[in-house]
Amino acid sequence: MAHEDLSARFAFSTIGLCIGLFLGMALMGARCNRLWRTDVIERHMAEWQIDAITGKRNWAWLPCGDLDHDD
Predict the structure, then answer these.
(1) Residue 55 φ/ψ region, left for φ over 0, alpha for ψ in the -120 to 50 degree band, beta for the rest
(2) What is the domain count for the chain?
(3) Which keywords, in A-to-Z order, does the entry hold (predicted)?
(4) 27 assigned to some structural domain
């Protein structure tokens, strides 16, 4: 096998490895982000259910503050 063949094979395998690692990290990041968002939504839904039972509304988690304050 010629030296050029080994160099090309090494270059292509290195490029393939880098692309595979990049895609793997991107997919894992997207999955972790989705799981985090799902956790946040579930936590806020639980807070809303507790607020509905107690009759109070808690808007403190919103970044813009209290939207509907009628206490």
Answers:
(1) left
(2) 1
(3) Membrane, Transmembrane, Transmembrane helix
(4) no
Q: What is the pLDDT along the chain (71 residues), one digit of tens a residue?
A: 556 677 888 888 899 888 888 888 888 777 766 666 777 777 777 776 666 666 666 555 555 544 555 54
Q: Which residues have C-beta within 8 Å of that of residue 65, sequence separation ≥ 6? A: 59
Residue 19, domain member (yes or no): no
Tokens of 7: 């160099």
Q: What is the pTM of this model?
A: 0.39
Specify whether the CB–CB gap between 59 and 67 falls below 8 A.
yes
The domain in which residue 39 lies consists of 35-65
User: Are 47 and 58 contacting, i.e. CB atoms less than 8 angstroms apart?
Assistant: yes
Task: Report residue 36 as tokens.
Answer: 């985090």
